[in-house]
Amino acid sequence: xxxxxxxxxxxxxxxxxxxxxxxxxxxxxxxxxxxxxxxxxxxxxxxxxxxxxxxxxxxxxxxxxxxxxxxxxxxxxxxxxxxxxxxxxxxxxxxxxxxxxxxxxxx
Length: 107
Hints:
Layout: H1 2-26, E1 30-34, E2 40-45, E3 50-55, H2 57-60, H3 63-96
Antiparallel strand pairs: 1-2, 2-3
Helix pairs in contact: 1-3
Protein name: Nucleoid-associated protein ACFFVF_09905
Keywords: Cytoplasm, DNA-binding
Main location: cytoplasm
C-alpha cells in the first residue's frame, strides 16, 4: 500500500511538472482575432497575455467605435485563448492523474 501511495505521489509531481511546462509553452501559442472589416486586430498568447493591437487610422477618428471594437475583438480573442488553454492543460491533467476510485472528475 505504501508503495502505491509513493507511486501516486510521484505521478502527481510529474503531472505538476508537465502542467508547468505546458503553461510555459502556451506563452508561445499566439491567437489572432480581427474585426470582419479589418480595422482592428489583436494578438494574444494562449495564456491570455496581449502581445499586440493594430488599429486602423479610420478607427482613430471615432473614440466610441474604437472602444466598441476593442471590447468585442478582445473578448473574442480571450475566449479563443481560454479554450486553447483549457484544452491543453485539461489534457495534461487528465493524462497524469492517478486512477483513484471515485475521483473521476477529469473524465
